[in-house]
Amino acid sequence: MTDLDQLTQSLARNLKRWRGERGFTLDTLAARAGVSRGMIIQIEQARTNPSVGTTVKLADALGVSITTLLDYDQDSPVRLVPADQAVRMWSTEAGSATTLLVGTEARGPLELWSWRLMPGDGSRSDPHPEGTVELLHVTTGTLTLVVADTPYTVSAGTSATFEAHHAHAYRNEGTEPVELTMAVSIPPVR
Questions:
Q1: DSSP string of 59-126?
Q2: Pick from 102, 89, 28: which is nearest to 62 by CA?
Q3: How far is the CA of 60 from the CAs of 8, 67, 88, 158, in angstroms?
Q4: Closest CA to 56 of 111, 131, 95
Q5: Is the model's pTM score more than 0.85?
Q6: From first to last of its 190 residues, what are the pLDDT tens digits of the chain?
Q7: Cα 17 from chain centroid (whole Å)
């Protein structure tokens, strides 16, 4: 079984589990997430690999982290995530990438990310649920953070936090790679 097959199976199993725990029908989850009922069925039957955006929408609608939806093993009180098991969520031919390092469900989902943006690359994000907060620390380069259509310059050594229920984007408008670490805190589903 390839890593992608294992990821597809884990997502199918975990999506069914969390939908059941929340008491959501397929139609309820589809409406909450803005994802078609057919797509959810395909994911739960491990017949497709959804986009990062679809996975984020489903996690947000369920009030869990992406890590929880993609996690292979959730039985131990301590979870070590070796580098080769961190989840690469997206990458570009230029070398930009995001990697979900680890996450937890304690008091609402909390995720830790590693980002690398090559010059000229960027990533947009739809608004997350009200109460979602992102914290980031740039270690290399200069990041252009855009929140609610307002750009902010975040240079190496600088940290930032913002309410992520606004549309936001991360861009590298410079000439050197941007590296940053980000934490995302998502409110629990009520």
A1: HHHHT--HHHHH-S---SSS----GGGSEEEEE-TTS-EEEEEEEE-TTS-EEEEEEEE-TT-EEEEP
A2: 28
A3: 18, 12, 19, 28
A4: 111
A5: no
A6: 677 787 888 889 889 988 988 889 999 999 999 999 999 999 999 999 888 889 989 999 998 888 778 875 555 445 556 667 777 778 899 999 888 776 666 667 788 899 999 999 999 998 988 888 888 899 999 999 999 999 999 999 888 888 888 999 999 999 999 999 999 988 877 6
A7: 19
Taking phi first (over 0 means left), then psi (-120 to 50 degrees means alpha), and beta for anything else, what does residue 30 get? alpha
Read out DSSP for 113-176?
EEEEE-TT-EEEEPPPPTT-EEEEEEEESEEEEEETTEEEEEETT-EEEEETTS-EEEE--SSS
